[in-house]
Fold:
Amino acid sequence: MSRWEPGAPERLQKAALELFATRGYEQTTATEIAQSVGLTERTFFRYFSDKREVLFHGQDVFVQAFLVGVDTAPPGASPIEIVACALQSAASLFPNERRPHSRTRQSVIEQNPALQERESHKLAGLAATLADALRARGVDELAATLAAESGATVFGIAFTQWLREGEQRSLADLSAHVLRELLTLTAEATAALDIP
Amino acid sequence: MSRWEPGAPERLQKAALELFATRGYEQTTATEIAQSVGLTERTFFRYFSDKREVLFHGQDVFVQAFLVGVDTAPPGASPIEIVACALQSAASLFPNERRPHSRTRQSVIEQNPALQERESHKLAGLAATLADALRARGVDELAATLAAESGATVFGIAFTQWLREGEQRSLADLSAHVLRELLTLTAEATAALDIP
Structure:
């Protein structure tokens, strides 16, 4: 079956997530994922290099959402303000309807250390790309790296909170809340350490 | 050879790093590492689950250095001040004499995406343990997570800087410098975003 398959990557992703969640990640093969939606293993490997990548497909779109936010920040915005714009833009990728899907994905990742490593690395990659975008706006090296890393941290914490059972707030609200808490915490330390 | 081998893990680590750096990580097997210092593959696997773990051996000691710093922070220290103590304590593990070894290790990791993932995950693990230690001191959930993640970020940036060719400053000085820059950056945003 080498013809074009409309929506094949999305169907494979959905099927993979269901199989990973019900049978377990280790116990599911690429062939089984493909067969469960009437596709061949060959079609699977046309879209994904291995079964792990099914869980991380779409990272470009994810990073792109942050970059769009960087572009919308007004000229003269400080590095952290630019990051605040990036966080708000990224949150739009995760409307509340997507929460059940994201929760299932998270539960699969939590069961497997190699997937957790891949997920940590995804946030590290986000931070690196965000830092490049800040530097491209003229932010200096260290400030760009720190602001970008802090943005990835805030996103990671807000996203974990967003996935919690019973959480109702939007990811945008949670991101803003976590960022505000970071600013409060650092302000406290700045006062105590007497940094001008 | 099943007798006790004094200093075997250290000898294996040193040999592995040399082989990884000269021949390449992929091209080096556990057996070759062991043989290069007159040990058997069996001895190798007594200490390390695979060749990758040779590069990450000692993570307990690494995390422990941060925890010792948390314990030395005075009562009433704010979360970021506690993290500042943890960073100073961790820096003592990396005296300048260790810089060449750390540079070689870094160059091996940079050549292999799976090793980079493992390294990202190591910092994520550090942040999680540090957050637990802050919570144990009574810091609330979100503040503990944020301060711990910020500490891991500051460490990661300072460490990368410390490894750069020509860098002369100590890791302690670099950590303090990066933390100060974070506080400056966030203070700027706090003022601009008008957060009380």
